[in-house]
Design brief:
heterodimer, A: TIM Barrel, 2 domains, eight-stranded mixed beta sheet, five-stranded mixed beta sheet, 22 strands, B: alpha/beta, five-stranded parallel beta sheet, 9 helices, 10% strand
C-alpha cells in the first residue's frame, strides 16, 4: 500500500447520487449525439467493431469521422478498467498506488512551462529613507535540459511532491523532434526516484523511451510490475474531437500494458460550456471517450480518468485557475471518476499571477484546499506553476511544497476517541489546579511528535518588507546543493549504448 | 556522585520535568526522578546549594535559552523548563541563607493593569522570570495602580512588571508610575512594561524605565534593570 500522499477520510460529495446519474446520462447522450469527431481511423474501426456507428467527413485537409458511440460500448469498456493502478518508481518506496475507490490523494508537478524564473537578490538604496534593502529581482529564461534536470532534482527533495511530471519545456538548440523524448525522459529519470509521468511528443520515440525504462528496471515484465514511466495523452481536443497522433500513442501505450492518463482540458467559456453542469457533462464525455478507446485497444490496461477543466478569463480568454468554478469542475470530475471506479487525475495549485509571492500563493492555496476534499488520486500542476502554466518558479515550488503540507495537514483525523477524552479531562483538571493555568506543557508532546503544524518557516523579521521570497531563495540553494541520486554508472552506460539520440552532456559519468 | 546529580538536574531542566510524574521531550522518562526529586537528593547528599543553583538549575536554563535561539526549542519548552526550575527552587528555599540567592536575581511584582483581564503575556513573563532566577510576586489581572504600588513596597521589590493588551487600559500603566512616585518609591522601584499596544515610545511617555517587546526581551530588560 502506498504511504505517500494523504488520506481524505470523508471525501466531499458535491454531487448527489442522482446528480451523478444525470451527468453520466448527459455525457453518454453526448457521445451518441453529436458523438465525437474522430481523426484517427484505427480508433474509428475499433469503435465501429464494438457497436458504434461512423460517418466519414472532411475537416479542412484531414479525413475525419463523426462517430456515434452508444452507451453500452462505453459501459463495456468501463467494465474492464482495473480499479487499481500503480505508478512505479526507481525507489520502490516512492511508488504511488491509485485505488479508484480509495481516498488517498497524491500531489505532483507539471506542466511543460516555456519559462524558468530565476530569482536574484539585489541591493537597493531607498530614495525615500536612504536605507539599503535587498529585493528579489526576477528574470525569465527559456526552458532547457539543464533546467529540467534541476527541476527533477528539486522535486526529489520536496517531501510533499509524490510524482513528477516534467515542468520545463526544453528548448535547447540541439534538442530536436527526433531526440527530444529520449532526452527529456532520461533527464527526469536520472534525477528523481519518484514516479515519472509524462507525455510523448513523437510517436516514433515511444519505443525508445520504453526501452530506456526497461533497462532501468531490468526488462519488460519488470516494467509492467514497476512502471517507472507512466504516460499522459491529450487524446481529446475539446470539444469532443479525437486527435489522430495522440490516439495512436494511446493505443500503443495501452497495448504495452503501461499506465496512461486520459487528459482532457476543456476551457469553460471557449471550448466547453462555462457553467458547471455543461462543463462537467462535456469533460466527462471526453474522458469516457478516451477510456473507451484505451480499453478497446487492450481490455484491462491501466488507465486513469484525467480531467483538467479550466475556466476562461473573460478579458482575454486565457485559462483561469484560482477561481471557484475551477474547484467546482474538478471536484465534480473526481466524484464522477469514483462513480465509474476509475482512478482520477485532477488539478490544483496553478497561480495565474506572473511572479512568485503573495498573490500566487493565495490563488494556489485556494485550490490546494478545495480540490483535494473530493479525494482525486492524483493532483497535478501543484508545484511552482505561474502565469497560467507559462512559467515555472523553483522558489514558488518550495513555497508550494509547504502549502501542500498545510493542505495535507487539514485532512488529519480528529483524534477523538474514548481514551483521548479521558486524557483531556485529566489534563484540564491538572491545569486548573496549576499556578498559571497554562496548557503549554501539554502542547509540547504534540509539537515533538509532529502533531502540531510547524508554522511558516520562511517568514522574515523585517517590519517594512516581505522577506519570504528571499528566505525561500536561500533554502532553495540548500536543496539544490544536495547530492543527486543518479542512475548507476552501469545503467547509464547501457542506456547511452542502446538508446540513440541521447546527448552526452546528460551523462553524469562522462 | 554530586557531579552526576548536577548533570541530571541540568538534563531534567532541559526535558522540562518538574517531578517523576512528568514526561520529558525524550520518550520513556516518566517515573524517573525529576528536578524536584533530584534537587532533594543533591541536598541530602550534601551538595553545595550554590552548585545546585548555578551549575544545575541556572545552567539548565541557559542551555534551554541557547536551544531556543537556534530554533531547536519553542516557547512550550522554555515554559516547561522554567516550571521545572521553579519546582527545584521550592525544594531549595528552606536551605538558602538570606542574601545568598534567597531572592535570586531580585524580586519582581507582576500585574495586568486595572480593567484588563488578559494574562497570557503576563504569565509567560512571570514563569520565565522565575525560571531565570527572579522571585516573582504575581498579583494577577485587573489590579488597581494603588494595589500594585502597595505590593511593591510591602515586598521590597526592585521591579514592577506591567502588562496590558488593550489600548483602553494601557494608560493605567502611567497611573502605576504616578502611584510609585507619590509613595516616594520611584528611585527604588523600576518599571518595566509590555503588551501588544505598548511600545518603547509609550514607555518613555509614561515615565517607565523599560519596554519588553516579548517575553525574552522582558527577561533581558529585567536583568539589566536589577543588575
Amino acid at each position: 500500500m502506498s504511504e505517500r500522499g494523504i488520506v481524505v477520510h470523508k471525501p466531499y460529495a458535491r454531487l448527489s447520487r442522482e446528480q451523478m446519474e444525470m451527468i453520466d446520462k448527459a455525457s453518454l447522450d453526448l457521445l451518441e449525439n453529436p458523438g465525437i469527431l474522430c481523426y484517427h481511423e484505427e480508433s474509428v474501426t475499433m469503435l465501429e467493431k464494438a457497436g458504434a456507428t461512423a460517418k466519414a467527413t472532411r475537416e479542412g485537409e484531414h479525413d475525419a469521422w463523426w462517430v456515434s458511440i452508444p452507451a453500452k460500448v462505453v459501459k463495456q469498456a468501463l467494465d474492464t478498467v482495473p480499479a487499481t493502478v500503480t505508478l512505479g518508481a526507481r525507489n520502490p518506496e516512492n511508488k504511488v498506488i491509485l485505488e479508484a475507490e480509495g481516498n488517498r490523494v497524491h500531489f505532483g508537478s507539471g506542466s511543460e512551462t516555456n519559462y524558468w524564473l530565476e530569482v536574484k537578490p539585489e541591493k537597493f538604496t531607498s530614495t525615500e529613507d536612504g536605507r539599503e534593502r535587498v529585493l528579489p529581482i526576477m528574470k525569465r529564461n527559456r526552458g532547457s535540459l539543464e533546467y529540467l534536470c534541476r527541476s527533477a532534482h528539486l522535486s526529489e527533495q520536496l517531501e510533499n511532491l509524490d510524482f513528477f511530471i516534467r515542468n520545463v519545456n526544453v528548448q535547447d538548440t540541439d534538442v530536436t523532434t527526433e531526440n527530444k523524448d529520449v532526452n527529456v525522459f532520461f533527464a527526469a529519470l536520472n534525477n528523481i526516484t519518484k514516479p515519472v509521468v509524462s507525455g510523448v511528443a513523437d510517436f516514433d520515440q515511444l519505443e525508445q523511451v520504453v526501452k530506456m525504462a526497461e533497462i532501468i528496471v531490468g526488462g519488460r515484465d519488470e516494467l509492467v510490475k514497476n512502471p517507472v514511466v507512466s504516460f499522459i495523452t491529450s487524446v481529446v481536443k475539446s470539444p469532443l474531437q479525437i486527435v489522430a497522433e495522440t490516439a495512436e500513442k494511446l493505443i500503443a501505450i495501452a497495448r504495452l500494458g503501461l499506465p496512461v492518463v486520459i487528459s482532457t482540458s476543456p476551457q469553460g467559456g471557449s471550448t466547453a460550456p462555462i457553467d458547471e453542469v455543461g462543463m462537467v457533462a462535456q469533460v466527462n464525455a471526453e474522458a469516457l471517450a478516451g477510456i473507451t478507446i484505451n480499453q478497446l485497444a487492450n481490455p484491462g490496461a491501466p488507465v486513469i480518468y484525467g480531467a483538467v477543466p479550466v475556466r476562461a478569463r473573460m478579458d482575454d480568454l486565457h485559462d483561469m485557475y484560482g477561481v471557484p468554478e475551477f474547484c467546482h469542475y474538478n471536484m465534480d470530475c473526481a466524484q464522477m471518476a469514483r462513480y465509474y471506479k476509475v482512478p482520477c487525475y485532477s488539478t490544483a495549485g496553478v497561480g495565474d499571477a506572473k511572479v512568485p509571492g503573495i498573490q500566487a500563493s493565495v490563488e494556489k492555496m485556494y485550490t490546494y484546499t478545495a480540490v483535494p476534499f473530493a479525494a482525486p488520486g492524483l493532483v497535478h500542476y501543484a508545484f511552482g506553476l505561474l502565469d497560467k502554466t507559462q512559467t515555472f518558479s523553483p522558489e514558488q515550488a518550495v513555497l508550494d511544497n509547504h502549502k501542500i503540507g498545510m493542505a495535507k495537514f487539514l485532512h488529519r483525523e480528529s483524534g477523538i476517541t474514548e481514551e483521548a477524552i479521558e486524557r483531556t479531562k485529566k489534563t484540564v483538571q491538572e491545569v486548573m489546579h496549576s499556578p498559571y493555568r497554562m496548557y503549554a506543557r501539554y502542547a509540547r508532546g504534540m509539537l515533538r511528535r509532529g502533531e502540531i503544524f510547524g508554522g511558516f518557516p520562511f517568514e522574515g523579521e523585517s517590519e517594512d518588507q516581505d522577506q519570504t521570497l528571499l528566505n525561500v531563495h536561500e533554502h532553495l540553494k540548500e536543496l539544490e546543493a544536495r547530492e543527486p541520486q543518479y542512475l548507476s554508472e552501469d545503467v547509464c552506460k547501457e542506456i547511452f549504448d542502446k538508446i540513440p539520440g541521447l546527448l552526452p552532456r546528460l551523462n553524469p559519468y562522462k | 556522585m554530586s557531579k552526576d546529580l548536577i548533570e541530571q538536574i541540568v538534563n531534567n531542566v532541559l526535558q522540562g520535568r518538574r517531578n517523576k510524574d512528568d514526561e520529558g521531550i525524550e520518550e520513556g522518562m516518566t517515573g524517573d526522578p525529576g528536578v524536584a526529586e533530584l534537587v532533594q537528593k543533591a541536598l541530602d547528599s550534601g551538595t553545595d546549594t550554590n552548585d545546585i543553583l548555578l551549575n544545575g538549575l541556572s545552567r539548565g536554563m541557559e542551555l534551554v535559552g541557547e536551544k531556543y535561539e537556534t530554533g531547536e526549542y519553542f516557547i512550550p519548552d522554555m515554559l516547561t523548563a522554567a516550571e521545572a526550575v521553579e519546582e527545584g527552587m521550592k525544594v531549595m528555599e528552606p536551605h538558602l541563607v538570606k542574601g545568598e540567592g534567597g531572592s535570586g536575581k531580585g524580586k519582581v511584582v507582576m500585574a495586568t493593569v486595572e480593567k484588563d483581564l488578559h494574562d497570557i503575556g503576563k504569565n509567560l513573563v512571570s514563569i520565565m522570570l522565575k525560571g531565570a532566577g527572579f522571585t516573582v510576586v504575581d498579583l494577577g489581572i485587573d489590579v488597581p495602580a494603588a494595589r500594585i504600588a502597595e505590593a511593591a513596597e510591602e515586598e521590597g521589590a526592585g521591579l514592577v512588571g506591567l502588562s496590558a493588551l488593550l489600548n483602553t487600559t494601557m494608560s493605567n500603566m502611567g497611573d502605576v508610575v504616578k502611584e510609585l512616585e507619590q509613595k516616594g518609591l520611584r528611585d527604588k522601584v523600576k518599571v518595566l512594561i509590555g503588551g501588544a499596544p505598548t511600545s518603547e515610545d509609550f514607555a518613555k511617555e509614561i515615565g517607565a524605565d523599560s519596554y519588553g517587546k516579548d517575553a525574552f526581551a522582558a527577561i533581558r530588560e529585567a536583568e539589566k534593570l536589577l543588575k
